[in-house]
Design brief:
Blueprint lengths: L5 E6 L7 H14 L3 E5 L2 H7 L2 E4 L26 H14 L3 E6 L1 H14 L3 E5 L15 H22 L2 E6 L6 H9 L4 E3 L7 H15 L3 E6 L7 H9 L9 E5 L11 H19 L5 E6 L2 E6 H6 L6 H10 L1
Parallel strand pairs: 1-2, 1-4, 4-5, 5-10, 6-8, 6-9, 7-8
Antiparallel strand pairs: 2-3, 10-11
Helix pairs in contact: 1-9, 2-3, 5-6, 6-11
């Protein structure tokens, strides 16, 4: 079993509420095991450029409640080139790092698996993405916070929609997965939810919305994932208005965008991030590498980094049926 004395930690890809709580947990768990910890700024870009900083207990004080990431994040096309990974390996060796903990999504883990295979650097992944689309864990760090932000905004939009008898198309994040749209739609009482996992039939949508607006003679909310096959809420609006059948309906679009990424993490995300961060260090000490730590049915689970990206996590189609019943 390889001896771990120093480890590096970084956040990569899109930021997610709770990443700081995970950084804190990794750092303090490592210190409790007498390990040295180095923070790597700006993800794989920082790994390529050797942008490392020594971490201690004070480095992560008073961050569990903050959004964003104190280590910053970046997307790094250079890392997917052989020269970039070689530079990163040199900096890891120079710093004397024996292992890495990566907090991010499928792109982060794909890069980590490649780096491990080429340079034999042990790496453990912690799932940090608001999309909740990673196989091997029931929830990802940041998902619950983003979901609650989306529902809070939908509630606010409902107030003004009711005041003016408007139809609002609310776009939430979810380029490839509809977890936020589906669950915020149910939690926010939406009349219709459109997600990437289902086929969008415009004729059915038009009939459904007209029926709802006529029956209720009030406002309606349609939640649209940004990755819906139509291309999001703006495209949906153009399609609805293309034949003049929606001319008498006061139709508005509200794109929630990056509001879902920011803000303080929920208690659920803070606890999840703390558990996964501590488990990542324990997994390294136990000799595991090239795996992601996840939580399935309340139990910690390890999944190979390559397996995370190769297997698609499915939505709960019973919830999709529920949206139709409740509307």
């Amino acid at each position: 079993m390889r001896s771990i004395r120093r480890l590096g930690i970084f956040t990569s890809g899109g930021d997610a509420p709770g990443m700081n709580a995970c950084v804190r947990a990794v750092t303090r768990t490592a210190i409790a095991h007498d390990l040295g910890v180095w923070g790597i700024r700006r993800g794989y870009e920082g790994l390529i450029e050797g942008d490392f900083v020594k971490m201690d207990g004070r480095s992560v004080s008073n961050i569990v409640q903050t959004g964003g990431t104190i280590l910053k994040s970046a997307r790094s096309p250079r890392f997917f080139g052989e020269e970039g990974r070689q530079q990163a390996a040199c900096h890891v060796e120079e710093a004397g790092l024996d292992a890495l903990v990566a907090i991010g999504g499928d792109g982060t883990f794909a890069g980590g698996a490649l780096f491990h295979d080429e340079h034999d650097v042990p790496i453990i992944g912690c799932p940090g993405t608001i999309d909740n689309d990673l196989y091997g864990t029931d929830e990802t760090i940041g998902y619950d916070s983003a979901l609650n932000t989306a529902i809070e905004n939908i509630d606010r939009i409902r107030d003004t929609a009711d005041a003016h008898d408007r139809l609002f198309l609310v776009e939430v994040m979810g380029r490839d997965a509809g977890f936020i749209a589906l669950n915020s739609g149910i939690g926010g009482g939406a009349e219709l939810v459109l997600i990437p996992e289902t086929v969008t039939n415009m004729n059915e949508i038009k009939e459904r919305i007209h029926s709802l607006m006529t029956a209720q003679t009030r406002s309606s909310i349609v939640v649209v994932a940004e990755g819906d096959e139509l291309g999001g809420a703006e495209k949906l609006k153009r399609e609805l208005q293309s034949d003049g059948s929606f001319d008498e309906i006061d139709l508005r679009v509200c794109i929630l965008g990056h509001t879902q990424r920011g803000g303080a993490p929920t208690a659920r995300d803070r606890v999840l991030a703390s558990r996964l961060g501590a488990a990542a260090v324990d997994a390294l000490i136990d000799g595991h590498d090239s795996v992601m730590v996840g939580l399935v049915n309340g139990e910690l689970k390890l999944t190979g980094l390559r397996g995370v990206g190769r297997r698609k996590k499915s939505i709960d189609y019973e919830l999709l049926k529920l949206t139709q019943v409740l509307s």
